[in-house]
Amino acid sequence: MSRPLPLKRDPIRVACALLLSLAGGIAGHAPAMGQTIAEIGNRWEPLVDRFLVDHLEGAARHELVPPEYAGVVFTFDAPWEGRYCGYVTILRDGSRFLMYYRGMPASSGQDSDQAFTCVAESSDGIAWRRPELDLFTINGHARNNVILANHAAYTHNFAPFIDMNPDCPSDRRFKALAGTEETGLSTFVSADGVHWTQEKEGAIREGGVFDSQNVAFWSETEQQYVCYARVWTQSGYNGYRWVGRATSPDFQAWTAVVPMNKGDAKDEHIYTNQTLPCPGAPHLYLSLAARFMPNRKVITPEQETAIGVESKYSGDCSDAVLMTSRGGNRYDRTFMEGYIRPRIGPEHWTSRTNYPAHGIVETGPSEWSIYVQEAYGQPTARLARYRIGPMRFASVRAGYDGGALVTRPFTFAGDTLYLNMATSAAGSIRCALLDAQTGQPFPGFDVADCQQMIGNDPAHQVRWSGGSLAPLVGKPVRLRVELYDADLYALRFGTAEEATR
């Protein structure tokens, strides 16, 4: 028999909450010896790692939220593109979207003179067109969308970004890195994203191998440029493909590339890392990485023939994983499982397909888009779009029986708490603010004092009978969130007057 929607304090849920607290819930959670107190201010904190998660109770679990497949948006079928197109970057520049990618009709490695850097444009991130440029004549085609050619070391893996440094001059607003182990990574600049000038040859050389897409951005929190580049765990292209990091104060002088630390996570081949600041939470870096599984063959010879893939690109498979970083030389691999799995059909189970593009862009009021290459090495090579809700990469989730999240101690700024949350029609969320020293709820801010939250909202205001949170600013607190058939994706403290997204 179904349970009615609990509009008031539900006695069954009170009993559940009591059992949860007896199991280690409301009381008895003073900071452990040496446990640091996080300062989260008024920033959004997506729950993509365990930064705020102290422990979970009941049926609560911390898990990835896979994005929704939204269909193919671009096919690499121009004469100068072809089955080996790759290393895609998606940027949003005001009202226009830009897509950069390598066009490569034939597989000839990094030194191919048939590799071209191309650009496509869109007004919505969904429907794309090739601008008709006349910068290069390619295979007899004078008008095309090629922006860089005749530089094999750079067209192989040209990786642009929009410089968000407030001190950046307008004629250098677009920047890019490209190169190989032999050349090092060179820097490029542009005013419009179409006409590029090489600025410094071999700006990054030491420590990297660079035989992949090497990405960079301006870090607002670290106040420097950061580059995430290909390294190998052993010398001579041995061991595992992995990621290293270099930094620069000015995009000119760079440190050596230092391998990223991943803690005790298992070694895996990370082919492209696609690290970038999380939109709306730039202190948190997201890596939608391509996980490559060499010699893990899935398709049969008959399927190879049917989809038209070269045999040398049929013996491996790959998917996408989510890694995170909060600056410095460390990735957090909270989630080892696949974030985007290969789809149904043999064309999704070949080498170097399912590689995410570099870029997360807003394509609607409550929709972000990420992009994934499909059918690499096949005649139908293309780019697909996936959509997610803002900051909804992972969540703390509880089913119908309920569960709870208790955070680590932290301090905040502002007088209001907002949750990025979703419930079922029968579900709900309530919160308590606890004294970090005693583990007891502050008066007026217990679960019983919290207005029940129901709905699907990227910025839902939490309301307690205690009113404004201003008296608690600067005090170490914990947040207890009780969930019933609900997801919590992110949280933020702020003011009732300011924009909450």
Summarize the helices and strands and which ones pair or pack.
Elements: H1 11-22, E1 38-41, E2 45-46, E3 53-58, E4 61-64, E5 68-75, E6 86-93, E7 96-103, E8 116-122, E9 128-129, E10 146-148, H2 152-155, E11 159-162, E12 174-180, E13 184-190, E14 196-204, E15 215-219, E16 224-234, E17 238-248, E18 258-259, E19 269-270, E20 275-278, E21 281-293, H3 301-307, E22 317-325, E23 361-364, E24 367-374, E25 382-388, E26 394-398, E27 403-407, E28 410-412, E29 416-435, E30 456-462, E31 477-494
Parallel strand pairs: 1-28
Antiparallel strand pairs: 2-31, 3-27, 4-26, 5-25, 6-7, 7-8, 8-9, 8-10, 11-12, 12-13, 13-14, 15-16, 16-17, 17-18, 19-21, 20-21, 21-22, 23-24, 24-25, 26-31, 27-31, 29-30, 29-31
Structure description:
This protein is mostly beta strands. The chain has three helices and 31 strands. It has helices at residues 11-22, 152-155, 301-307; strands spanning 38-41, 45-46, 53-58, 61-64, 68-75, 86-93, 96-103, 116-122, 128-129, 146-148, 159-162, 174-180, 184-190, 196-204, 215-219, 224-234, 238-248, 258-259, 269-270, 275-278, 281-293, 317-325, 361-364, 367-374, 382-388, 394-398, 403-407, 410-412, 416-435, 456-462, 477-494. The strands form seven sheets. Strands 2, 3, 4, 26, 27, 29, 30 and 31 form an eight-stranded antiparallel β-sheet that branches. Strand 8 and strand 9 form a beta hairpin.
**Straight-line N-to-C gap:** 39 Å
What portion of the residues fall into strands of 2 or more residues? 35-45%
Sheet bearing the most strands, described? 8 strands, antiparallel
Which stretches are poorly predicted, pLDDT < 50 over at least 5 residues?
Answer: 1-28
Structural shape: globular
Helix content: under 10%
Mean pLDDT: 92
The rounded Rg comes to 24 Å
Number of helices: 3
Sheet/helix structural class: mainly beta
Total strands: the figure is 31
